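Practice problem: predict the structure.
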Amino acid sequence: MTKKTNTIIDKIVLQVKNNLNEKKKSSSTIDMINLANKDSRKVISLSERITQKTLSDSNVAQIGLIAEIKRASPSKGVFDKNFDAAEVADVYASNGVSGISILTEPDYFLGSLADLRLCYENLLLNYKNDRPAILRKDFIIDSFQVYESFINGADAFLLISKILEKNQIVELMNHGKALGIEALIEVHNKKELLQALEIGAKLIGINNRNLDDFSENLELSIQLSKEAPSDVVIISESGIRTVEDVRKLVEHNIDGILVGEAFMSGGFNHKNVSKKIRSFMMVE
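Answer:
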C-alpha cells in the first residue's frame, strides 16, 4: 500500500496502479526479471557522474547537473509535447551534463518509456559509455517498474518518500541494487531525510516544491543538506531557474541540481539551453 498525501499525487498514483495492472496482463514481473537477466549492458553511476562534475571539454564544473526531459506537469501545464526526446538528450549530453532525467509518466506529464528507450539508444550510439547517466523519473511503486526501468536503459530511478512506506523504499532500492542501478530517494522534509539516511541511501534528492500548494523554497535544500554526512550525494530539485539560484546552492555545498522547467518552458531552444547549461554548471 502506498501512502496517502491528500494532494494531486494520490490521483496520479491511482492512475499508475491502473496502468500497472494493464501491463501485468501481458507481462508478469517474472517476465521482466528474465528480460533484465539477459541484458548485460554497462550501467553508468549517477552519483559518480555528479561528484566527478566534468564538462565535455574537460573543465571541472562547480556543480553536477541533471537536466530533465519533461513535456508537461500538473502545476505548469504543457511545455512542449512535440520535441524529439533524443535530440534534447543530445543537446544535454554535448554540453557535459552529469545526468539526464526522463519523465515517463504518460497521463499527467505526457512522458513515455519510448522516450527513455530512445534516449538511451541514441546516447549509447553517439557517446558510448562516456554518456551521462540516465534517471527514470516516475511514480515507482512496484518492483515491475524497477525491472522495466533497467530494461529500457535507466541507470537510476526515482523513489518518492512521500508516497512510499519505509519497507517499500528498502525493497525497491534492493531490487535496483541487484540490477546495478541506483535509487534516487526524494525527500521533502527532515523526517523523510533522516529515514533515507537510516536505510542507507547514498543518493538523496531534496524537492524544494511544496506538494500541497506547489510553492518553491530553495532554503529547504540548504537546511536539510546540513543533516546529511559528506559521503551522501545531495541533489536539489525544483525551483532552480537562474544563475543566482545555482550560486546559492553551490555556496552551501550542494552536490548536484535537477533542472527541467528552466530548460523546457516556452519550447526547447537548443542554443539558449546550451548557454544556460554552461552558465549553471560553471557558476562562480
